[in-house]
# Entry
Amino acid sequence: MTTPSTRVLVVDDEPLARERLRTLLQEEPGFDVVGEAGDGITGAESIMALSPDLVFLDVQMPEMDGFEATAAIRRMERDTGRRVRIVAMTAHAMSGDRKRCLGAGMDDYVAKPISVKEIDRILVQVAHSRTISSPNAA
# Structure
């Protein structure tokens, strides 16, 4: 039995960043980009509409930044009992940013532009966690 593709939502206010990430993900087996959003508000709403397994979420966006969007997503999850994996993205990687992102409820952190190596690392982690949590896993 094959594992279904990991459903991915990309949330970034920069269209070129979304396009680059979508292109990287399309080249990787096991990822299916099911949606994109250009701001945190739309991103949080898209979680409920699209039920992704994984969200790449830009930290710095207008309207609602990645921290606020994560808080909103985690509040919504209390009602559903489902938890989506959130990977924070930032172009301004500084000391302490990773800890701040994880402390805010995000599951992982990558610096932009995201490399193929980082995509592969995340794919391995997601595939491993999905195998462990699968009801058919023995």
